[in-house]
Amino acid sequence: MSDIEDNAAQFPIGGGELGALIRAHDWASTPLGPSAGWPETLRASLNLLLPAKAQIVLFWGPDYLTFYNDTYAPTIGDKHPGALGRPAREGWAELWDDLGPLLDGVWSTGETLSAKDRPFKIDRHGFLEEVFFDISYSPVRGEVGEMAGILCIVSETTERVRAVEGLADLTGQLEKRVAETTRERDGLWALSRDPFLIADAAGVWLSASPAWTFILGWSQEELLGRTSAWMEHPDDTLRTRQEVDHLAGHGATIAFENRFRTKSGEWRWFSWNAAERDGLLYCVARDITDQKRREAALAEAQEQLRQAQKMEAIGQLTGGIAHDFNNLLQGIVGSLDLVQKRISQGRTQEVDRFIAGAATSANRAAALTHRLLAFARRQPLDPRPVKVNPLVASMEDLLRRSLGERVELELVMAGGLWMTLCDPNQLESALLNLAINGRDAMPEGGRLTIETCNIHIDKIVARACDMDPGQYVCVAVTDMGVGMEPEVAERAIEPFYTTKPLGQGTGLGLSMVYGFARQSEGAVKIYSEIGKGTTVKIFLPRHIGAEQDDTGPDLHLPAPRADDGETVLVVEDEPVVRGLICEVLADLGYQALEAADGQQGLDITLSGRRIDLMVTDIGLPGLNGRQLADAARERRPDLKVLFMTGYAENAALSRGFLEPGMQMITKPFAMEDLATRIREMIEG
Questions:
Q1: What is the pLDDT of residues 260-313, one digit of tens each?
Q2: Omega into 501 within 30° of 0, i.e. cis?
């Protein structure tokens, strides 16, 4: 009975008790037949020890099924309870091909046989159903070791098998989808003209799509296994390393731009989007080289058009400017003629009056020249505190000449006007543009009004005008011209949009005015009505602070004099100007050295003579002023240089023209101002 006890010990419920029960039973007096012949107490005890939710348990005799527990009853369906006491081959004829070999194997070998997830087709209530079982068949022996029966322990695994099959189907579907997605990704990876890249956290390239080779010419072997530093543009290397570090720290990269060198030596621009996942950097780039070239070409074209627009405006001013300059020159030449005559006649008491007239005309000519240079120049100027009323008033003559005789100019200046912070030259340019636009809108003539006022912009108006609420200085230019349709007025500030006939306008005037106002943290508003005219208002934010001192040098104060032996080299190709400067220097006690061009100035510099300061014009023939200064400083590194220029001073300053020990003065200048600057530089 040891085998029965051992098998009984495998039962999940009461195994030891079942073994003791079977061992205590008098099997010799119990026929190995239908379980009905078993003692009722034994049958009841077995069912009690093997409840409905336990495993299926059967006892097979040599010829009959002698016992099964209640858990087995639903499995055999309609065969219950008639299966008991029937021959196994007869009762399970449809399953005998599966069951027979197992049972016969146990009977013939006397050893335990088992099968896992064994499929059976069982008729349950008229339906043939496939079910699965884990089966264990063990021999039951008598007192002398003979085979008395077979203990069968069965667990139905149909649900588990179906779940595994479902999982396998799902896994297969997922694998299929993954394979399809992988094929699609590989297709995109291989065919996309936008290059893809996978790198580690240090930026080492691990995988690169074929597009990199197509664009750059480098092979996969040359690209992989190292960072991109070897082919980055030197100006982009630091930014690229910083971006990789940012990305590796779980950041994100959007539209980062840098340049890579191709195998042929060309530089190509790329725009990057990238993200970090599980320690790897997944990147997609876009070759934007052609886009960059188009942008550069467009910027150049825009700059050329802006300059053309300025030159167009200057061309329109030519007649009025010539008239003004002739008047100014007449005042200068006439006054000097009278000075010469009075001196020759010995009548010197009236000379001061004529000299003052000549100086006034010369200063007005200088102011007009500077205004034209500032208008025509390309470089932006720095903003400064501006009093708008004096600025507009100073432009009156220029505006009247620009508008012509058929247009009446009216200036309406508000009292107590606030200061603003802006670029005065750009404001002048904006007003001149608006005035010319107003003139062109009145082909039959009319009135052009420039008005200034203080205004407070509340939140509602500010929102409508796309500006911040607050206090503003308003400059309004109003014409009585043809006006604009609302849709035209809305587009008027767009670059290159113009309503003028072909060849008569660049479409940049109002766009430049708008750009100037926005850069000054202000706004532009256009009001127009067909047949009644147009008003363009420029809003500039109020500036609260100290105003700049625009007063010139006090001509009545004595100029600072030289110390003994101080020497100034003057390099100027215009003999009259050179002579005047040297005359002033001599009067102040300086030793003045003269040079008519850059080469003469360099020869004097290299001669070893004492030179405390070099004053040189920039626009010299041959060796220009800057080249002269650089060559002289190679031998005299501490040489101080004062440049003279007839161009806008800030145009040179904005390009980083000046180095330490260099200054610049703009022609025309007062001699007292020149003397003061020379003294300051020598003492500094």
A1: 999 999 999 999 999 988 889 999 999 999 999 998 888 787 777 766 666 666
A2: no
- CA quadruple 400, 404, 407, 408: dihedral sign: positive
Q: What is the DSSP letter of 169?
A: H
Structure tokens at 407: 């247009």
- Does residue 95 sit in helix, strand or coil? helix
State pLDDT tens for residues 387-425: 999 999 988 888 887 888 889 999 999 999 999 998 887
The amino acid at residue 49 is L
Other Cβ atoms within 10 Å of 603 Cβ, number: 10
Cβ contacts of residue 96 below 8 Å, gap of 6+?
88, 89
429 vs 565: CA distance, rounded Å: 47
In the prediction, which pLDDT does 494 show?
55
Alpha helices of 217-350 — where are they, by DSSP H? 220-223, 237-248, 289-345
What's the CATH class of domain 192-287?
alpha beta
Q: Do domains 2-156 and 192-287 have the same CATH topology?
A: yes
CA-to-CA distance for 450 and 408, rounded, in angstroms? 11
Looking at the chain, how many residues does it have? 684
Q: Could you tell me the two tokens for 556?
A: 């009545």
For the chain, the straight-line distance linking the first and the last C-alpha, in angstroms and rounded, comes to 122
C-alpha dihedral, 293 to 296 to 299 to 305, nearest 10°: -80
- CA–CA distance, 327 with 237 (Å, rounded to integer): 60
The first and second tokens of residue 9, run together, are 């010990």
32 within 8 A of 62, measured Cβ to Cβ: yes
Non-local (6+) Cβ contacts of 43 within 8 A are 35, 67
Predicted TM-score of the model (pTM): 0.38
Annotated domain spans of the chain: 2-156, 192-287, 304-365, 380-541, 567-683
Q: What is the pLDDT of residues 594-652, one digit of tens each?
A: 999 999 999 999 998 899 999 999 888 888 888 999 999 998 999 999 998 875 444 44
Quick check: helix, strand or coil at residue 340? helix
Q: Tokens standing for 309?
A: 């627009």
- Of 196, 170, 174, nearest in space to 185 by CA: 196
Round to whole Å and give the CA distance between 65 and 552: 129
> Distance (Å, rounded) from C-alpha 315 to C-alpha 94?
112
Q: Fold for domain 567-683?
A: Rossmann fold (3.40.50)
C-alpha gyration radius of the chain: 52
Q: What is the CATH T-level fold of the domain 380-541, as seen in this structure?
A: Heat Shock Protein 90 (3.30.565)
Token look-up 């053309």 returns 308
Q: Is 474 in a helix, a strand, or coil?
A: strand
Helix axes of 671-683 and 575-587: crossing angle, nearest 10 degrees: 60
Name the class of domain 2-156: alpha beta
